[in-house]
Design brief:
Elements (H helix, E strand, L loop, with lengths): L21 H6 L4 E3 L2 E5 L15 E4 L7 H8 L6 E5 L2 E4 L3 E4 L10 E7 L2 E9 L4 E10 L2 E12 L8 E4 L6 E10 L3 E10 L2 E10 L14 E3 L1
Parallel strand pairs: 3-4
Antiparallel strand pairs: 1-2, 2-3, 4-5, 5-6, 7-8, 7-15, 8-9, 9-10, 10-12, 11-12, 12-13, 13-14, 14-15
């Protein structure tokens, strides 16, 4: 799965609306519009299109409710040929209906923290829409921030097929997690947000080309809501 840390972080946190982007515009460039709904055979660059996978047609009332990255991955996930997104619902072939996981309130920042080996792990997250989290991650040693990453992580469409699970070594409990992914040319960062009997928990994974401060999932401490 995913990976952890990166660089650069801004100061102010707040509600960050998501707008249409050039990536999403190109994704929907050949859409046929019917009223407020768009039917989109979402596209990828030719060199990244999965082999032998027919792209699905995706129908949705508003692209602002879902990230371009999620829509692109959903198009080539081979889940169905016709997919409808209706607010918090995803409907496959007009028959199977699932609900998007919404583990956090929209537009509110939540802080998760943990300590291990003299380091403090701090993750601030805020849900932007049905598929996107704004996040700010900091790794601190004493009073010094030694690594930091800020960005947007998108829901992995794999939640449709099966739930991911994590285990808390302190309690021995296994719990269901929702996976959000961030990728840049240099790093991969995954947020695994779960609920263990009413207690929200986070595990993170980081893999960067530099190899500095990378975090393997099995070595990541459980971050708890502060």
């Amino acid at each position: 799965m995913g990976a952890l840390l990166l660089t650069a972080c801004g100061g102010d946190f707040g509600r960050t609306p998501q707008h249409s982007t050039p990536a999403l515009d190109s994704l929907l460039a050949d859409s046929s519009l019917m009223g407020e709904d768009a039917v989109a055979p979402a596209k990828q660059a030719k060199d990244t299109v999965p082999a032998n996978v027919k792209p699905a047609k995706i129908k949705m009332p508003s692209d602002l409710d879902y990230s371009p990255d999620f829509l692109q991955k959903l198009t080539y996930a081979n889940l169905a040929q016709n997919i409808e997104l209706a607010d918090s619902f995803i409907i496959l072939e007009q028959t199977d209906t699932l609900v998007f996981p919404m583990p956090l309130p929209k537009g509110e920042w939540t802080n998760f923290v943990a300590s291990k080996g003299g380091y403090l792990y701090s993750l601030d997250v805020s849900r932007v829409n049905y598929t996107t989290l704004d996040f700010n991650f900091e790794l601190r040693k004493g009073r010094q921030t030694v690594d930091q990453l800020r960005g947007k992580a998108s829901l992995n469409p794999g939640f449709v097929l099966a739930a991911e699970t994590d285990e808390d070594p302190q309690t021995g409990n296994e719990y269901v997690s929702t996976v959000y992914e961030f990728e840049s040319p240099d790093c991969v960062f995954n947020i695994r947000l779960g609920d263990d009997e009413g207690v929200r928990k986070v595990k993170i994974y980081k893999s960067c080309k530099t190899g500095k401060y990378n975090i393997e999932l099995e070595n990541c401490p459980i971050l708890l809501e502060k």
